[in-house]
Amino acid sequence: MWFMKKKGLWLIVLNVNNNSPPGKPVLKQCHSPDKEIFTCWWEPNAHDGEDTTYRLLYEKELTIGILECPDYHTAGKNSCFFDKNHTSIWVDYFLTVVAINAFGNTTSDVYKIDVVDIVKPNPPENVTLWLELCEDIPTIHVTWNSFNIGTKCGWITPKYQLRFKKVDSKWNYVGEQTQFSIYSASPGKLYIVQVQCALDNGAWSEWSNTTFIQVPRSESKQHIWILVSFSAILLFAAVCIMFIKKKRYTNKCCLFHSIQQWLLPPVPGPRIKGIDVQLLKNGRSHEATRALLINHGFPWNGMPWKNQAEEYLLVRDDNKLLNEDQKHTHGKMISNNCHSKPNINNQLNVHNSMNFKEEKTILDDLVDTSQSELVNELNYVNTMKTDTAFSIDTIYVRNVKPVENSRYVDIQRQDVDMEYSTVREPMLFPEKQNKVINRQQERLPYDYTRVKEVNGDMLLLQDPSFRNNTQNTDYINPTPLHPVTEKVHECAESLNDGYVDNPHTHNVK
Amino acid sequence: MEGTKTLKFFVTVVCMVAVAGAIPIGDLLDLASQHSDKLHSLSTLLTHELDTHFPPIGHKIMPRPSMCHTATLQGPTDKIQALQFPEHDLLSLVRSLLQSWADPLLVLSANANTLPHPAQSTIASKVQELRDNSNSLGHGLDILSGKMGPASQILSISPYDGNADLGEDNISKLLNFQFLLSCFRRDSHKIDSFLKVLRCRAAKMQPNMC
Fold first, then answer.
1. Can you give the pTM of this predicted structure?
2. Which residues of A touch B197 (CB under 8 A)?
3. How many structural domains compose chain B?
4. Nearest CA of chain A to the CA of B72: how many Å?
5. Are A108 and A98 in contact (CB under 8 A)?
6. What is the largest CA-CA distance in chain A?
7. pLDDT tens track for A3-22
């Protein structure tokens, strides 16, 4: 140890080499790029002097004797390169590095490797990107130097992984191909691509150097944008002119209404032929239904259907029960046996999944509660729904006409967590029907439903999800309704002898 | 698991068709290579799984009872040797290696169920996959050797003479488990490499297969 003073700084130089052996070196890592050669590197101790030399000695499994590194220079300083002749795989190498100076030597810890475990290839070279423009759709093709497998002949199995991204976005990873194409690249963007490879399920190499490609802007797209914006401006100008013109002559309020009417025509309310709402309101439901029966010849002597919980509810979106200028509405049903395509004219979104109680509440809300008789009959109708299968307003024997311009609207109610339609104009059936139902039920087989009369106009809409039930009064298994469809004639052939088959059995007698 | 079953089914189908001599050896080798690749990657995954909660033996010497029990099965140890090895001998070696691991895999499987390791269940299921894959590969190789002639059907099985119980205390159990697994990993890599060399040789007409 000696002291040196230079420009006010004290320098203390430790001259370790004078006295002691070198420090312990450390073997850092070994790599094999191709399973045929490998290289190992070590790190000398920080305090070693310049005159320290290093030797790498090793032993091989299944080999007797200690061997020395064949090549200290090819891979640089503090390294050892094993060429093909000195590389064996599936055998363990036990490596040690010895640091030697004039005062002694120091041996590192034993470092054990198997060449197959240290395989880490170099990144692929010569990553090339080229752009292909096909009808203004740019495609980027990526190629790179792959391992020359022909010469390797099965000795290594390379696999590649690629990642690409547009500038300022995230990497997209694509695995295990030998070439790659990016289709429909975004015009005007700069793309970055990198490739890496791995051998034999081993470690992945480093990513290759980034390669860039700039996709040119698409000219035709620019033209389109100009066209679109120009026409938008024209449209806007036209609307403004129209608005201003109208404004001169009409009231603002009326204009708004007229636009509203043009865009959103009012929903016509439902109306049943033969039912006078006033009669219903007055509580004379029997007269109302009788009128209907007389007018349309309803087959209410027999039990129309069994096991159909089809509910067909008409809905209005305002608070009036009936409007004078409402059009006729008809419920239509089509047998499921017909493989005809339904022409869905009016969409009905009704769920019968509310239970009996809730329905009663709804009815109470909508119908004047003073009409207790009416309510009772409504309730009765609902109970009969499950097994009798006549839906309110739904069974038409004759004169079924397609409804024009009638719509059915759902009324959402907050207290019931489902879609349903509110009963506005229930069709009520005389009580005597119930007895008939009972009698008929005993005779009818389980799966069959009966209609009194069938003619070509009669259509049945059956819910395929309907399940049989035997109860008369319980409200079981509510099922969603089919959308209302237009009549289709060819269905008539499937109906015979007053029997309509249940969709589940598909038996038509 | 599904992949193994699919491969198994495929192998069965191949077996039936191969009996009629309909499937060329090249395709059989391709199928076998896929199996062996899967086997090797499974064993690699298993090693990583084991190392997550256990300090890897890595490059340190650890006192181990003996070398791998299949060390006596001599074979090529570099590329040149492998490319020059005769086909029948190569296939025979592969089959011998695989067959030599039938019993030790059972030992691994039994010990995996009670392994004192945090990832024990994952390890146990992977070992089971390993066994299934190994069985499928064995069947495929039997068919292959049948097609390649009697020379490839010579088996020299190296018996496993270790204890069924891998150790008395937890540490030695884990160490021995890890050592056995490393031996298997090496042998699975041998099997994979040899089959791929064979596949490439059989596909000389189609260099792109190599």
1. 0.55
2. 153-155
3. 1
4. 10
5. yes
6. 130
7. 545 544 444 444 444 578 88
C-alpha distance from A85 to closest chain B C-alpha (Å): 9
In a domain, B174, yes or no: yes
**Which amino acid is present at B152?**
S
A406 pLDDT higher than 50: no
Tell me the nearest-neighbour CA distance from A175 into chain B, angstroms.
16
Tell me what pLDDT residue A318 has.
52
A112 to B61: CB separation less than 8 angstroms, yes or no: yes
CA distances from A29 to A18, A26, A77, A87, B104 (A): 31, 9, 14, 16, 32
- Give the one of A35, A110, A200 whose C-beta lies nearest to B79's C-beta: A35
Distance CA A311, CA A462 (A): 10
Using a CB-CB cut-off of 8 Å, the residues of chain B touching A112 are 59-61
How close A28 gets to chain B, by Cα (Å)?
Answer: 11
Q: Which residues of B touch A91 (CB under 8 A)?
A: 77
pLDDT for res B165: 78
* Inter-residue contact B140 to B191 (CB < 8 Å): no
Looking up tokens 């022409």, which residue turns up?
A: A343
Query: Is some CB atom of chain B closer than 8 A to the CB atom of A358?
Result: no
What is d(CA A443, CA A459) in angstroms, rounded to the nearest whole number? Answer: 23
Residue in B39, B40, B17 with CA at minimum distance from that of residue B28? B17
A233-246: average pLDDT: 88
Residue A38 has pLDDT above 90, yes or no: yes
Looking at residue B92, which CATH number applies to its domain? 1.20.1250.10
A108-112, A351-355, B64-68, B106-110: least confident range: A351-355
Position B171 scores a pLDDT of 80
- B177: containing domain: 24-209
In 3D space, the residue among A451, A430, A429, A431 whose CA is nearest the CA of residue A440 turns out to be A451
Reported ipTM: the value is 0.82
| B19 part of a folded domain | no
Contacts of B59 in chain A (CB under 8 A): 27, 110-113
